[in-house]
Amino acid sequence: MTALAARLRSLARELPAGELRLDEANRAAHAGDKWFARHEPDAVALPRTPASVARILRFAHTHRIPVTPRGAGHGYVGGCVPVQGGIALSLARLRRIKEIHTGDFVAVVQPGVPTQALQDAVEAKGLFYPPDPASRADSTIGGTSPPTLADRAASSTA
User: Fold this and answer.
1) Top-level CATH class of 3-94?
2) H or E, element range at 43
3) Which H, E and C letters describe 64-128, residue by residue?
4) How does 131-150 read in b/e, with b if 16+ C-beta sit within 10 Å?
5) Most buried residue, 1, 45, 115, 135, by CB count within 10 Å?
6) Which of 96, 93, 80 is nearest to 48 (CA)?
7) 8-state DSSP, 16
């Protein structure tokens, strides 16, 4: 067993059951998006809570393990391809729409919320969420955010 594999097994023990997958099938499923580029991660993180995201990022930072965040994997630009290996951090389980403020047009959502679900929720309040990807039923807010915003959110969580 490599040192990285041992570290990842240690992380798996720190997380709730099922939140870190090391098996080949999960790693292959999280190796790319709809684009042609693929690279298997060493592990797939499937956190259910922001606390688990923070634990994963803290561990990865401490042990210098690359982390590639991903939404639903329906993009065509390769942004979720874990080209350095490490951990593919799937945010798909974080699906809560926490708040929709009609007065200032701000929605507070978790990154795994499908774009269509947010569009439907704001429309129910008489508002409109304009981004309209063709994959809106499958794409997630976390996967459609500009990388600089996602990077800031991830670093502020750790």
Assistant:
1) alpha beta
2) strand 43-45
3) CCCEEEECCCCCCCCCCCCCCCCEEEECCCCCCEEEEECCCCEEEECCCCEHHHHHHHHHCCCCC
4) eeeebbeebbbbbbbeeeeb
5) 45
6) 93
7) P
pLDDT in tens, 9-34: 999 999 999 999 999 999 999 999 88
Residue type, 67: V
Instruction: Considering only CA atoms, give the Rg of the chain.
Output: 16
More confident position, 73 or 48: 48
Burial class (CB in 10 A: 0-12, 13-18, 19+), 105: exposed
- Between CA 83 and CA 157, with CA 136 as vertex, the angle to 5 degrees is 50
- How much is the pLDDT for 145? 60
Tell me the CB-side half-sphere exposure of residue 156, using CA atoms within 13 A: 6
Q: Are 143 and 72 in contact (CB under 8 A)?
A: yes
Domain ranges within the chain, ordered by starting residue: 3-94
In this predicted structure, the answer to whether residue 94 has a pLDDT above a threshold of 70 is yes
